[in-house]
Design a protein that fits this description.
The protein has five helices and two strands; from the N terminus they run ααααββα. By secondary structure, it is mainly alpha-helical. It has two domains: 78 residues; 55 residues, no CATH class. Strands 1-2 form a two-stranded antiparallel sheet. Helix 1 packs parallel to helix 3, helix 2 packs parallel to helix 4 and helix 3 packs across helix 4. It is elongated. The two termini are 42 Å apart. The relative contact order is 0.11. The structure holds zinc ion. Zinc ion binds next to helix 5. The site of zinc ion has 8 residues, from helix 5.
Length: 138
């Protein structure tokens, strides 16, 4: 799920902390452990990035792998990433597209999917609209 290049960029930020292994073999080994933990524990790149930010801000040395794992577990998952998984119809994006005959033309439409994710997005959209209209009224 997490893009490899972007993940590596974040891992390198960790490796810039003091006391990183000087030996390139050791450094690669540590990166491999970090990568394994990121893939296992991080919900998304944004989630992982928050954990890395926290470590870069607070750690005075390159963290051992367990410390990275802990930081990820203690980092709240960003709100929108708590969204349910999509389904086969929407292929995980919460939208389904369909075509409809309007007059003599076949037009493309998109709507929220019928699955949990689609309904989650629909509700979020309704909430956004309500917030916008209540702000407009105030
Ligand atoms: Zn769906």
């Amino acid at each position: 799920m997490i893009d490899e290049k972007k993940l590596t960029k974040e891992l390198k930020r960790l490796m810039k902390l003091p006391f990183a292994p000087q030996n390139s073999e050791d450094a690669e080994q540590l990166m491999a452990e970090y990568r394994r933990i990121a893939r296992r524990d991080a919900r998304s790149l944004a989630h992982f990035l928050r954990a890395v930010d926290h470590l870069v801000d607070t750690s005075s040395r390159v963290p051992p792998p367990a410390m990275l794992a802990n930081a990820i577990l203690e980092t709240p998952v960003p709100e929108r990433e708590k969204a349910p998984m999509g389904c086969e119809i929407c292929q995980g994006n919460g939208w389904q597209s369909f075509t409809r005959m309007v007059g003599k033309q076949l037009l493309d439409y998109a709507d929220f999917c019928v699955c949990d994710l689609g309904q989650f997005l629909r509700n979020a959209e309704i909430k956004r609209k309500q917030e916008r209209s209540s702000k407009g009224a105030a």
